[in-house]
């Protein structure tokens, strides 16, 4: 069987080698990413750089791109030299554009990156091409698509915090994740509806949603302060060119089928941030009121509402992020001074364990000035 030319191979130490830049010579052995046997680097003036097997083999090299992309993605997740950006396919049928989404926040912090990770969910074990872990706990999974899609039962399962991305773009830029599209059949009624809004009576609003494409993946976001959990299946993303069209379709369909239903206006990013701060201040004030912490003890401090970093606790609480609090005694069991009496130590109000500020910094949460919490606390005490 004729040997195949491959542009990538596995170098010593498990790193990815590219035929265009890999060093040559007997001191630099390489193995095939697909079958694991030795390959040689061929690079000269008469042929394009490539790797080939030493001996005649049945290896087709079909999995080389897939394995190479996995290695590049794992390396990028370990090094984090640049922000991770997720390119979500536009949900409008036939559109080839993507919505670029900053992914570092949803992906969260991690301490370890593993390839070929086995994750058990209930009675089922799923294998992920690449996974990130935080102190041994699963954070997120990445499936790399080249020739074979993620099986249908796996895509529709209870597996969460995973995304399926294209392999070849990872080899050009592993920090740009191009999500694979899951597209439903074209709906001719809605095709006509696009050009004639008077046909809205024939289209139910739910059909507009079903008509939209979906990205392959599912991510769960938890708003801890309100106990709400959001599951993002990437089926509501439209590029700027189609966002207005989609909104008009939904508006026309809703006006016919649900005349009294008015879609709420989307708050601006500034208004949403203010609302989040207000809700967090309410939570922090109730938290301190229940523990009899006076409002004046919070003046001039910075606090953070987040989960306890203890792996066995994870209870929501409020922690002082300032190095020192003048009235630290007023916090009771929540705070005390370090041995050198120079730094404030935080303790969880649920489990009572010490919470290091460095670990608290990694937790998702909301930071507030203590004056804001103190003002809300005074309203609660006076009511």
Main sheet summary:
6 strands, mixed
**Proportion in helices:** 25-40%
Side-by-side strand order of the widest sheet: 8-9-10-11-15-16
How many β-strand runs?
Answer: 22
Give a quick summary of the entry.
The chain is 27% helix and 29% strand. By secondary structure, it is of the alpha+beta class. The protein has three domains: 8-62, no CATH class; 79-257, no CATH class; 270-382, no CATH class.
Describe the structure.
With 383 residues, this protein is an alpha+beta fold. The chain has three domains: 8-62, no CATH class; 79-257, no CATH class; 270-382, no CATH class. 27% of the residues lie in helices and 29% in strands. It contains ten helices and 22 strands. The protein has helices at 64-79, 104-107, 152-155, 168-172, 188-195, 205-211, 240-257, 269-290, 357-362, 370-382; strands spanning 8-11, 16-18, 30-31, 38-44, 47-53, 85-89, 98-102, 112-121, 124-134, 137-145, 162-166, 176-178, 181-182, 214-215, 217-223, 228-232, 302-307, 316-320, 335-337, 344-347, 354-355, 365-369. A six-stranded mixed beta sheet has the order 8-9-10-11-15-16. The radius of gyration is 27 Å and the shape is flat. It holds the Pfam family CoiA_N. Residues 28-60 form the Competence protein CoiA-like N-terminal domain. It comes from Deinococcus multiflagellatus. This is Competence protein CoiA family protein.
């Amino acid at each position: 069987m004729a040997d195949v030319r491959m542009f990538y191979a596995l170098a010593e130490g498990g790193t990815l080698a590219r035929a265009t830049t890999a060093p040559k010579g007997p001191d630099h052995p390489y193995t095939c990413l697909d079958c694991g046997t030795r390959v040689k680097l061929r690079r000269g003036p008469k042929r394009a750089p490539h790797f080939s097997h030493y001996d005649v083999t049945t290896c087709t090299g079909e999995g080389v791109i897939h394995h190479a992309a996995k290695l590049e993605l794992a390396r990028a997740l370990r090094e984090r030299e640049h922000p991770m950006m997720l390119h979500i396919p536009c949900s409008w049928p036939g559109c080839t554009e993507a919505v670029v989404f900053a992914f570092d926040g949803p992906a969260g912090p991690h301490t370890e990156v593993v390839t070929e990770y086995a994750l058990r969910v209930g009675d089922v074990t799923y294998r992920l091409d690449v996974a990130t872990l935080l102190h041994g706990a699963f954070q997120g999974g990445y499936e790399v698509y080249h020739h074979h899609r993620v099986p249908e039962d796996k895509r529709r399962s209870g597996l969460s915090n995973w995304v399926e991305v294209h392999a070849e773009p990872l080899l050009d830029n592993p920090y740009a994740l191009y999500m694979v599209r899951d597209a439903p059949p074209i709906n001719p009624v809605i095709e006509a509806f696009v050009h004639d809004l008077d046909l809205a009576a024939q289209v139910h609003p739910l059909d507009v949603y079903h008509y939209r494409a979906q990205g392959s993946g599912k991510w769960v976001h938890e708003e801890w302060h309100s106990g709400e959990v959001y599951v993002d299946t990437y089926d509501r993303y439209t590029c700027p060119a189609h966002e207005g069209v989609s909104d008009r379709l939904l508006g026309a369909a809703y006006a016919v089928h649900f005349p009294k239903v008015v879609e709420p206006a989307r708050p601006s990013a500034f208004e949403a941030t203010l609302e989040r701060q207000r809700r967090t201040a309410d939570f922090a004030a109730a938290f301190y009121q229940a523990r009899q912490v006076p409002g004046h003890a919070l003046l001039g401090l910075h606090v953070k509402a987040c989960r306890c970093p203890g792996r066995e606790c994870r209870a929501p609480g409020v922690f002082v992020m300032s190095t020192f609090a003048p009235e630290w005694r007023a916090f009771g069991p929540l705070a005390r001074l370090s041995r050198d009496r120079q730094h404030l130590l935080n303790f969880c109000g649920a489990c009572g364990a010490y919470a290091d500020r460095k670990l608290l910094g990694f937790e998702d949460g909301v930071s507030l000035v203590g004056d804001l919490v103190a003002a809300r606390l005074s309203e609660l005490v006076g009511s």
